[in-house]
Amino acid sequence: MRRFTLIAVPYLWLLALFLVPFLIVLKISLSDYALSIPPYAPTLDFSAGWQGIKDLLSKLDFENYVFLTEDALYWKAYLSSLKIALISTVLTLLVGYPIAYGMARAAPEWRPTLLMLVILPFWTSFLIRVYAWMGILASEGVLYQFLSFLGIVDEPLKILSTNTAVYIGIVYTYLPFMILPIYAALEKMDDSLIEAAEDLGCSRMSAFWLITIPLSKSGIIAGCFLVFIPTIGEFVIPSLLGGSDTLMIGKVLWEEFFSNRDWPVASAVAIILLLILVIPIVLFQRNQQLQREAEG
Amino acid sequence: MKTKLMTMTAVTALVAGVAGAEEVRVYNWSDYIDESLLEKFEAETGLTLVYDVFDSNEVLETKMLAGGSGYDVVVPTGSFLQRQIAAGAFQKLDASKLPNKGNLWSVIEERTAQYDPANEYSINYMWGTTGIGVNVGKVQEILGEDAPIGSLDLIFNPENMEKLAECGVHFLDAPTEVIPAALAYIGEDPDSKDADVIEKAKPVLQAVRPYVAKFHSSEYINALANGEICVAFGWSGDVLQARDRAAEAENGVEIAYNAPSEGALMWFDQMAIPVDAPNPEGAHKFLNFIMDAENMAAASNYVYYANGNKASQEFLIEDVIGDTAIYPDEATLENLYTFSPYDPRLQRTVTRMWTEIKSGV
């Protein structure tokens, strides 16, 4: 009985917070637009009982999914989101790894403070931090003031409202998600392994490549997934920092919802996005599982 | 810790419970009221006013069509109001609770009846035009003394726009405002519901697209005021607010607004009560408060938009009532056109075209 309860709780959790919302969105994606509240038809008639459910199912179709294949906008937006997510992940890794490495190498009494500094920005609203970047990157913003004070630039910057600003925003926002797992992996590493490698004639550089990187692999993989997965569907950063030509699926979804008021098509876009994300999510889960077994 | 948490939850529930009966929740456009009026309303009625803002009709409409927004008063623009009435989103107003309704101006009521027949569901809050705001000094510096600042030629002629791009141009991110203007520019019916006619707006907009720094519906107020941009295709009162902010800052920026000579869109922002408003009683009190001549005048004097309240006109400052950019003269009034909503299929075509214009895809 206890065993059953132990299993039931997480499954109920998944059912309530994942499966039910998913089914609702799936159902809307198979419906048609209607000028009503809510703005789609048919809706489930509970009073009709089983017959109501049958009626509902008979009226659903895949029309909206067919529509998505007919317009190049959608696959271009998916591809562009994938590209932006991929580049952002690589950039975040390049910035995050040295920071995590430095933290793991720091004197043990300093580490809690450094860790705190990485987590500290979370105490401020994410939205406010993105707005702060708008102030920094604006054509005559803080960054421009600073650079022109140093005499490096003499004309207003053109960073805000471009993809460059989107990359800066994403790397900044998701950096802690990259640093923390890598730091966790590096911290557990036994320093004597490096000493042994150097004793056996390895240079510092090749010891880093041959010992440190492979041992932090699980942290790198975890960090990359934690950055990549949410970045694909990112909406706030591209809409605040990006320009009108920044094409991301999150923005397309917003437009379907708000400009076209077409909830069924918007839901279809969301379902496809979810299907695209299932692959990296499953890979991530497997990686975590393998790691747990290895540590077993 | 657990006890503390439970106490907190209980207290929050209590506060919410009490406040529920006493609150009026208003959802209005950003930068659209003299905020001292909000305090005055609370003092007069003893109700707590929760005042939230938005900057696009699309966001408001999605909340209305989702239902259960929790707002008691919302302010959609006429063409959006019409569609939301059709969807059953609003309740009819109870005239017996609105003694100030006699203050309204029949000239405006006749026009808003296009969207809300017999004005049963809404009252006019403000109205205005969509036109061109310019930083006079900069534009004349670039295009010369005789720059066509009163004509759509300024923003739809690529030759002008190419030069203006260096000082910055913003357009509203609202296809239902920009596309009619592009149609007016090429001499087509701006309110056309013919897909082939609407399609003609595309090349006009694509030709100037490279020179538009941003499509956004509220940032241009500050951008114009602080000299960051020199031209904005935007809403009349917003541009005039920018003019005021620049004057207050004494930064040497001189802003002017013109309703384009080719014709300008005239729009009406209407206050209405959602069908599921938690406090319709309080909502009526708010509408009645707004329709008070002095209150309405205070709002217009602050935001520089014309209102649909005849009785308020004696309390308007000369800067507002005497400015033809706000209260147009007869000749300009003739030149204004109104806009009615697209059906869903056409709406999709228009949104798709807008995305293509903006992002090239």
From TrEMBL, chain A:
Keyword Membrane: yes
Superkingdom assignment: Bacteria
Coiled-coil region: none
Biological processes, Gene Ontology terms: transmembrane transport
Pfam families (alphabetical): BPD_transp_1 (PF00528)
SUPFAM superfamilies tied to this protein: MetI-like
Keywords: Cell membrane, Membrane, Transmembrane, Transmembrane helix, Transport
GO CC, any one term: plasma membrane
Transmembrane stretches, start-end: 12-30, 84-102, 114-134, 165-186, 207-229, 263-284
Domain ABC transmembrane type-1: residue ranges: 78-284
Membrane topology: Multi-pass membrane protein
Compartments reported by the entry: Cell membrane
Chief localisation class: membrane
Family of the protein in this entry: Belongs to the binding-protein-dependent transport system permease family. CysTW subfamily.
Annotated protein name in UniProt: Putrescine transport system permease protein
Organism: Thalassococcus halodurans
TrEMBL record, chain B:
Keyword Coiled coil: no
Major subcellular location class: periplasm
Signal found in the keyword field: yes
UniProt superkingdom: Bacteria
Signal peptide: 1-21
GO molecular function annotation: polyamine binding
Keyword annotations from UniProtKB, A to Z: Periplasm, Signal, Transport
GO aspect biological process, one term: polyamine transport
A Gene Ontology cellular-component term: periplasmic space
Protein's job: Required for the activity of the bacterial periplasmic transport system of putrescine.
PANTHER family in the record: NORSPERMIDINE SENSOR (PTHR30222:SF12), SPERMIDINE/PUTRESCINE-BINDING PERIPLASMIC PROTEIN (PTHR30222)
UniProt protein name: Putrescine-binding periplasmic protein
Organism: Thalassococcus halodurans
